[in-house]
Structure formats: C-alpha cells, structure tokens
## 1
Amino acid sequence: MGQFINLTAADGFTLPAYVAAPAGKAKGAVVVLQEIFGVNSHIQSVADGYAAAGYLAVAPATFHRAQAGVDLGYTEADMGIGFGFKTAVDALPAPGVMQDIQAAIAYAGSAADGAKVGIVGYCWGGLLTWRSACALSGLSAAVSYYGGGMTTAEESARQPTCPVLAHFGNKDHWIPLDSVEAFKLAHPDVAVHIYEADHGFNCDQRGSYNEAAAKLALERTHAFFAKHLG
C-alpha cells in the first residue's frame, strides 16, 4: 500500500520515510514512530492500517542518522543490534532525531492537505512520541505504546502541549508498574491505560503479542485520534 519517500530535516539531513495513503481524502495524518527494529514489515503494516482507517501515515526512519536501511526481526541478536543503534541516536547532539520527527510532522500535514497531525510510537518510538508531544510543533494528539523510559522522573518532568494517550502492560519488566503509577499522578490530564500484557504486546511478530490487549488499545487509539484529529 505504501512507498518510501525522502524527508529533509531542518539541518539539511535527508532520511527515508514509509508513507501509506488512504484511498480517498485523508481525514487526518499520523506519524508512526518505530521500535528499535527499524521501519520493518511490522511498522509498515501499522502504517498501512492507519491508511486503511483513512489517515495519511508517515513512518520516518529514525535510525538513519546512525545507520541506514535498518530492518530487523525480533530475535535476541536483533534486539542487541537495535539497542546499539538506539544508543547511537540517543547520543547525537541535540536536537538529533527530533528534527527528523519534526520533518515528518510537517510533511504529513502538508501531504494531507493541511489536516491535523497525530503521532503514535512503540517502545523507543513511544518515548520519542512523548518527547514530541512536549517539544515539537504541529501535533494535535499523541499516543505512546509502552514508551521505554518515559515514566522516569526526568521524562515525566516534561509537559505535553497536545492531548496524550499512553498504553502500558502490567507484565512489562522494562517499565516498572510503580513508575507508571507515578507518571499517572504527575500527569492527570494524560489518558493512561494499563493492560494485562507484556512489553511489545501490540506487535503480532513478537512472542509477547497479546491479541486482546492490542485490539482494545487500537480501538482506544482510533477513538482518541477521531476526537482530536477530526
């Protein structure tokens, strides 16, 4: 359904992004932020799903400043490789990858004829979604799935400038449940949902996939975007 295009960030850096367009006029646009596995077949299918729901979906390759063409699976080895790329991107001088996400937001709004833009991200992409909601311009809604690190005191100190929805799993050993509860207290305006699920529960290519949790989270996400991007 989609194709890769090139985006240009404010500093002139060029990166690829997977773009999936709806059949008719877009009712909004959604920027999709990858996990640590690249813009792989799963992330492309997520973007295709938002396009099928009527949104223009844009998934920027947020590893591109560290490594081009990342397309990993979900083995332990893949996880180690992806974590290395994440570490490299996180170490970039500010604003680093945030300017690539800003370029994706700008492109999404323009390509969707000025429609409102939302953002959704998974794992590392969930953390970047939270940061985007707090620091970038042009967003009308943000949805984070199990954002790794976003419940730390440092990240929780940020303040979003658009409505935020956050999904977490209560069996997630990467994100302690007490930190999620602290995040909820610090951000009463953020809609936080906790599922009987593990980290990565939305990804049907992972062993931690939880169909019931994924379905409910997606229903809530679609309702949230319908409310704020309509």
## 2
Amino acid sequence: MLAAAALGWRAIRLQRRLERSERDRRRAADELNRRLSELFSLQELSYILSGSLQLDRIVEQVVRYAMRFLEAKGALVALAADGEGEGGEDADRRRLKVTAAEGTLGPLRGGSIGADDPGLIARSVTGERVELVHSTDTEPTPLVAGIQVASAAAVPLRAHGVLVGTLVIADPRDGVFAPEDVRLLSTVATHAAIVIANARFFEMVHHAKEQWETAFDALSEGIAVVDTQGSIRRANRSLAAMLDSPIPSVIGLDLGTALLGQSPALVDLLAAARRGERAQPLVLRSAPLGRALRVNAARIPSPEQEASVVVLVEDVTDQQQMEAQLIQSEKLAAVGQLVSGVAHELNNPLTSIAGLSEFLLEQKELASKDRGHLRVIHEQAERASRIVRNLLTFARKGPAEQARVDLNDVIQRTLTLMAHDLKLKDITVEKVLPTTIPEVVGDRHALQQVVLNLLNNAAQAVADNTPGQRRLICINTSFDDRVRMRVSDSGPGISDAVVPQLFTPFFTTKEPGQGTGLGLSITYSIVEAHGGRITVECPPEGGAAFLVDLPPAPPTPPPTRDAAGREPHAPPAAPLAKRTILLVDDDPAVRRLVKALFGREGHTVEVARSAQHALDLARTRTYDLILADARAMTRDHLFVEQLVELHPGLKQRILVATGDVRASTDEALAHLGLRYVRKPFNLRDLLDEAAQVWAAVALS
C-alpha cells in the first residue's frame, strides 16, 4: 500500500511538473511571440520613419504605433518650438505645441501647453526618463489643466542633448505599465527623437535653401557661380536677363565671353578672387550688351584646393548716365556763373567803345577816312555787344517773364550765338523768317532755350554725316492761326522705335557722356508752358524735323481818340533843362563816356568813386538823376538798396546800369522797383531812359 501510495504521489508530482513546464513553455512562447511582434513592429516603425522627412507624418506614425504597442486609449506628441530646449533646464520650460494626437487625447491636437501648466505633459520636459502616474481616490492624474486620465506615461524626446518634445501615452491595457512596456516606450521615444530632430534639421535646411534661392533670384544684380575654367555653374534670373537668355541656356557659358567679349581685366579679377584676394570691383564697358557693368568677385570657401568663385554683376549704365547728367548740370551752372561774370566785365569796355565811337561819329569835323574807321569800330563793338547779350540771355536765371516776344528775333540772336560753332562744323543754315509773323507772349529766355536745343540737336545729327553728304539745317517760321517754327536737318533721322520716348527725361540715343537726355524734355516742358505743342516728323527725303506751334499774342489795342475821333497829340516838349547828375561807377572809361554824353547836352555830371562817397554826396546835395552801376556795394549791401532805405524820396531819380544777371541782383532791383538799363547800352538808349526818369519826377 505504501509503495502504491508513493508511486501515486510521484505520478502526481510528475504530472504537476509536466503541467508547470507546459505553462512555462506556453508563457515563454507567448512572451517570445510578443517580443517578436514588438520587434517586427519596431522594425516596421523604423522603416516608416526612416522613409520620410516630413515632420507631420513622422509624429503621426509615432503616436499611432505607440498606441498599438501598448494597446492604449490615447497618445500624443508635443513638440518644442524650433531652437527651444537649447541652453539648459530654464530653456526647457517653454511652450509646447501638440503636433499629433490620437484616441482620447485627439481633442488636444493643435493646442499649446505653457511651461507653467500643472499637468504631466509640461512637467515631463524637465525630466530625463519615463514618468508614470496613476489616479487614486484622493489625487487624480492631470494630463494638462482641466484634463485627467486614470494612468499615463510621459517620456521626454531628446536628441543630441537637445529637447525635441515629449511622447505621452494614456490608459494602456489593464490600466498599468509593465516594465517591458516602459522599456518599449523608451525605445520608441529614443528612435522617434532622433528622427524628429533630423526631420526638423531637414526642414531648417530646406527652408534656408528656399530663402537663399529666393533671395538669389530676387536680387536685381546678376550673380553667377563660376568654376576654375570661368564657366557658369549657377546663375540667377537677373544675370540671365542681362544675357537675354533663359537660365538653362546660360549654364555652361564662359562668363567673360558672354558678358564682355575678350576682357583680360575680368580674367585677372577672377584669378585674384580664387587666390582669396579682395580685389577692387571693376567697371567695364560691355560691347556685346552695350552697357556699363560693375563686376566684383569673391572666393567660395571650400576644402578643395581649386575653389569656385561667386561673381556679382551690376548694370551701372543708368547710374553713370545720372552721374554724368549731374556733373553736366554742375558744369552748366558753373558756366552760367562764369558767363555772367565775364559778360559783366566785358560790358564796361564794350559800353565805352561803342558809346565813345558813336559820340565821335556825331562830330562834324571828322575826315571821311577817320569816320570810316570809327564806323567799323562802332559796328564791331555793337557786334560784340550782341554776342554778350546773347550769352547773358542764355545764362540768365530767374522767374519766367511774360512779355511780347518776336520769335524771328529770338531765332536770329540764337543763330548769331551759334554761328562760330556751326562754321567750324561746316554746317549750312538756311532760314526763311517772314516779317509778317506776329509776336507771341512768353519768356524770351525760355524760348531762346527751345531754339538753342533744337538747333544743337540738328547740328549734332548732321555732324556725323559721311564726307560728301551735305550738312544742312533749315529753320523757318510761318503763321496761320498759330505761330509755327520748323527745324529740320539732313542727318540720319530718327527710328520709329525711338519716337515714343523722344521727350522722356534722361532718354538719349547718344553714347554715355555725349548727352544728358534732358534737352528735348526741357524743350517740351517750355513749349507746353507757353500753351504750345511740339511734334517730330521723319520726312521721306531723310533727316528729322521738329515742329513747334505757339499761340499768337493778342493784337495791340488801338490808340485812344478824342471826341472828334482824332488821336491825341503829345504836348510839346518843354525846353531842355540843365540837370545835375551823380554817376556811381568804378570804371574810368564808363565815367568818361557818361560825362562826355551828358556834358554835351549841358548837364553837370559829378562822379562818386565809391558807393560810400555817393552816399555822403546824396546827403548833402540834391541830384536830378543818380546813375549807378548795379554792382556798386557798401560793405554787405547794394548801394542803390541802401540809398533807397536812407532816402526813399530819391527812388524815382535812380537809374541803374547793369550787365549782371545774377538772381540776387535781379531780385533786389525788382523788389526796389527801380528803373534800369542793360549794359552795353548805346547813347540814345541811355538818353531816353534818363528822359523818362525826369518825366516821371516832373509828374510826381
């Protein structure tokens, strides 16, 4: 019995061992299957994550697989902003954004979590390992403010020591996290952090590349990357536009040949840049493009011994033209000042020569031969005086005048001014200027500038004619309902493509430095301001023709008549009284002329050798006429200005002789309302002006 009982017991124990062994085997098999499943899932997740660099897709896959591994009810990934997490624990406590969320945590997608949030998500970024929380009857588990779960695990996502974000799993199977679940979660988090960091880095590089390429193509300057042979390897849109080709066609071209043709200077610049030298930019004239280019080059740092070079190409044609125009404007202003000063200095000797020769011609005792010589002197002095007046007209500045202007006279004066230059260029001028042309109303000086600009353009056009081809300018005037002027030339003419831009400011067809592009624009503005029009024609026989039409001046009102219909006669002139005249002029020849002229008429002329001397004389004596040079100064004030201020009653007795065209002098005379006569003057003009002064004094 005992033996049987022992055998039975042994059988039972063996049975139990076998059952326990089977259970262990099944448990081991189940554990092995689970681990294999996790391994395959991790491998699948790794394959999916490594196959994409799109951050949104990566975090969605991490959340989805983490829920599947742990059979959780919810999961999310919250990422730190780009660049946050660097700099230690304080930097870690920054705002998180829930980038992906599934299951019960899905409503949190797209939300933000501040560093001061009391929940598990914000707290997890300060740790280094997985943090597990479970709800109790006394203390619930807050995930974020206002949201609680039964149990959750959060693991910070760190890659290369930098916080990327946090992975949160809520409510796993059986409500608890087994040790193997925690290990799996840590493995997933480690792999996910690296992939997310790489995806972010790729996005940063891609964004920077897009920004660089956008800036590269947006620059107005041309940019090219050239290799050691000088061939273009990369180019932006501006460079392709300069070369008038699409970007693909530019790649591979030799930069120097494409831009400049043969240019040793550019070759030297590229060689210096490859050596790492900082050479000065070059400004070169491009024959193929017909433009002026500023070229600069710099070496692109590279571990290779032979580095590429980036070349900056800037079109500076317009800038050079603008600089040339500013320089030209400054030159013209300087010439205007010079002309004013020189003309004034010439006026005094010309006044003396013309006046004294005229004075001598009136002497009866002269021999005929001497009279002939004096007449030549007088005519040449008058000729020089006309040239000076034309120069002053050209250089004169100030407000536009409104007066009746003889357009034919303006043309004649301008031709006289240009006569020498036209003769040197062998240019013939044919003119038809009928005497029946009515006057126009406007500024004589501005209208002379119109004529001068048109004649200058015509002269420049015919100057390039080939030998044997006639250099001819025709200018004529006519009148129907408007006063018309036509200036034509025998030059090469104007192309149809240029005509629409002809009156545009700064537009010129001339080579750089040969024209400002302002002449026709200014001409157009002046003509328009006078109520006129200017047009251009291209005659069939060649050349170009500019037509200007202006409104005629209104007719002069007829003289008034008395009750009997007769024109009133001027009262008989009073006998010429003897006058006392004060002359203020520092030129001895002018003083000699004035004394001789008025002395012949029986007048007394006293001379003040300085402005202060004249003021002293005016305090002690009464003069019928004070004839003063416009430049007479008392320290910082014009003599006439100070004289009027001290003695207002003398204003009507002052006559100013001026050859000065400075704006300050004109403004002072206009402000004072003084009569003046322009130098060089002839004797009759001076006597007439003096008579008008005395007549005005007599009527006052």
## 3
Amino acid sequence: MTAPSYGPRVVAVVGPTAVGKSALGIALAERLDGEVVNADSMQLYRGMDIGTAKLSPGERQGVPHHLLDVWDVTQPASVAAYQTLARSAIASIHSRGTVPVLVGGSGLYLRAVLDDLRFPGTDPAVRGRLEDELDRLGPGILHDRLRARDSPSAARIQPQNGRRIVRALEVIELTGRPYSATLPSYESVYDVAHIGLDLGIEVLDARLSERVGRMWTAGLVDEVRSLLPAGLREGITASRALGYAQALSYVDGQVTADEAQADTARATRRFVRRQRSWFRRDPRIRWYDGGSVDPDSLARTIDR
C-alpha cells in the first residue's frame, strides 16, 4: 500500500554528529530557496546551546530556522510531539512556496516526520508502575527485561536510557507486540531527497575530540550552572544529554573536569557509532563525504 503524500519535496540532511550537516543544510537552503527545520532532539531545548552545537543567529546566515528552543529543560522529550511540530513547520514552509530542509542526527525523530510512523497510546498506570521499577531497580535490570522480550529494540536503546526502556516496555505490554514492530517500512510520506553525510571513522573521532574540547572551552560548565535554576537537574531528558550529564557530574563534585570531558568524548563516540548503524540501514539515503561534498552540484541534483 502506498503511503499518503503530505506535500511536495522535502530535503533531509542526515548522518552522525560532527560531519557538517548544519553547514550543508544552510548551503542547500540558500541554493534551493529553502528553510531549515531542526531534527536534533537536544537542540529543541532552550538554553542548551554550547553542548548541542546549536548555531547562533549570526551563524544561520539569514536562513530561517525552525524548531530550535521550543522546549523547557524540564520537559521530557516526545517523538510524537516533535512529529506534530515538524510536520506543521513543513506545511507552513510549503505554503510559502519554499523548500523544507530537515537537518539533524536524531534518527527516530527524522523517521517520525518523514515516514508513516504512528505512535501507540500510553497508559498512566502502566507507565507509573514501570517508572517506579526504574527508580527502585535501575535501568540495567529493565534493559535486561527488554532484551528478553524484544532484542532488536534492546540493541537500539542504551542500557542507561531509562526513559526509552520504560516506553518500549510500556508499548510491549499495551500492544502485545515488540516495540520494534512499531517502526514502519522505509516508505516516505513526502517526496524526500535523503542526503547522508559521513566521514572516515578516524577523521570523525578526531573531529569529535576537537568538538568536545571546544564545548568545554566555550563554557559548557557555566551553561549547565545557568540552567540549574530552570530545572535542568530535574529534566528527565535534558539532564541526561551528552555533555550535560557529564558536566553535571563535575558540578556535583563526582568527577574532575578532565574525567568529565573524557567521559563526554567516549560517550559521544559510542553515540556516533549507533547513529551510523541506524542511518546505514536506510536504503533511500545517498551518501556523501562530509569533507568534500559540493553544495552547488548537490543542489543541482536535488533540483532536477
């Protein structure tokens, strides 16, 4: 069955962290008369700028950007809520006769927008019981339970990501089906040009180390301290974001600054490997070298 079409063309620039997606997204938007729609789940949070490598208004080069700074740090992330926001932004961009350029590395968020992904409901009683177990037992035991019931989902979800583990177990209990079965086939609801950027792993690891060093030099710890009055510590999602969780450990005196920075680099490398695995499974993505891609020729290809 053919998925419904919600509108004309969308350009999606995807790939792992630090390959140059933001710069390419702006370059393509300039050449295609487009507007950028953020698809980085952590850049949705207000005030989380340094640790997410969020572009400043000046760095956006006059290209309109959507879905940056829309959530408070206390709000749990919601793929379903993001789907609604992003499709609304895309519809608005299409209504102006311009091209949405979706840019980011959050794989599930991208698929929620671009593909026919529908979300199972939730049950407060089931969710509450699982969250209580998470508090009492920790994420590791719940992750083991998920692995026994749905090993593909367990392989995709970090053992420390209690929020996503709870959601997966909730869906399994409510639907009687594996959580992984809720992901659709690779069939877009838009006319999408899927552009993937990547780099050799050694080059990418070096970039990641430099990026983490720049984050700390630029004041990540001060940013974290400034977000504490806004509720960062209580934010289920924001407090566990890469860099922010490690900086919080440093602020709390649990680790040294060097240890926190090194842990951030290690965690980021692990995250990038999961990103690469996620995106490489999608047969629709055309891959380009992040170090040599030519925006002009790429824009001409997309515009045909």
